[in-house]
Amino acid sequence: MEAAASLGVDVAELEAALMAADPETAFLLQQRLRRQDDEQSGGAATDGYEWELYKENVRPLKRGRNVKLLNQSLRSQSNPNLKASLLRTRRRMIEAIDEYQGEDPLHPWLECIKWVQESFPNGGESSGLVVMYEQCVRTFWHDERYKEDLRYLKVWMEYADNCADAEVIFNFLEANEIGQTHSIFYISYGKHLTTKNKFKKADEIFNLGLARKARPLEKLEAAYRAFLVHSTQKEHGNEEDMSDDTLSVRSFGTVLTSVQSRRQPAENPVLPKRKVALQRVDTNKPLSIYKDENSKANDHPLNLKRNEKSWNTLGSRVDRNKENAPVPEKWSSYKVPQKIVHRIGSATPSACINVYVDEECAEQPPAQPAKSSTLKLRKANSQNLKKEAEMLRDNPLRNFPLNSLR
């Protein structure tokens, strides 16, 4: 650019020509100018554009993300002060759940979940999102107000997406009649079964949703048509794979044509062995024992050793049965020596043990157990959240009462 200025060429016109000729050069030039402006203004060179550097690590959301909050969250990875500020904000939002006194207790849960999704774009166990999903759905699973609430059902679906096997969650929702009037339940359940190649059960789930006229019905019908197309293509592909396996194949992978395969019989060295093994055995025929005519039995060293110390006499009947004829004895003739213990007193059936109670403790009322639904979230650190999230992924209903698993 300096050389162009010395030659009397307009630098602005030259840059415009380069940008018009090569879009990639124009983009790199804009990035360089932007970094120069940031450095001159005293800010960091990447402020406001962190998503360009970390976008591979950002989990996508269906509703999209707030770019300003996303950049602030990504900047906290290299700034300890911003990270501490995010953790304090999360703690305040969790405390606001217990302090809520309105008519919709699910609302603060949804606000907290939405904020965590935006502020921890990488996800992961340290964000506490999986634990938050579990505690939210466990808090309201028996509440009749939210049985058919679409917001509550979507939290269940997000929790299912973060579990290793979500089928147990769908079975739980079906058994407790949660979200059975919404098509999203049947669509998500059917897609999950399709990934496990359970096409028959997936077809039953789709038909169940259609019979119940789950809302919106048009969305469920479209998903069912897509499922039928996918299952048909899957079955057709399996049939082609089976037909390919039955073709005759030469060595070096050359496939025989149909005429060549009829002319050339397949040679299988294992086949004669199978025919011999499958021959019918005559059970009435006596078993023949092989005898070697050339061998001399008397020359065997074992036979010579036997002849040296042979057992020529069988012995009398008394000698052979001496172990089975013991002399009968009287069992009552033996008596175990015992010590005589003098009992001081015996407890009566009506007697009870008096438990000592401190007077100061007796005056205090018994402590009531904490009913906070966010106690684990407020007291847990990143390591505990990670451990709990890993256990919930393997067993998503581990903290639910047994009567809920009906």
UniProtKB/TrEMBL annotation:
It comes from the Eukaryota. It is found in: Chromosome, Centromere, Kinetochore; Nucleus. Residues 387-406 are annotated as: Disordered. GO terms for molecular function: protein kinase activity. Keywords: Cell cycle, Centromere, Chromosome, Kinetochore, Nucleus. Residues 387-396 have a biased composition (Basic and acidic residues). Its main location: nucleus. Gene3D superfamilies: 1.25.40.430. SMART domains: Mad3_BUB1_I. Coiled coil: none annotated. Residues 93-251 form the BUB1 N-terminal domain. GO terms for cellular component: kinetochore; nucleus. One of its GO terms (biological process) is mitotic spindle assembly checkpoint signaling. PROSITE patterns: BUB1_N. This is Mitotic spindle checkpoint protein BUBR1-like. The lineage of its organism: Eukaryota, Viridiplantae, Streptophyta, Embryophyta, Tracheophyta.
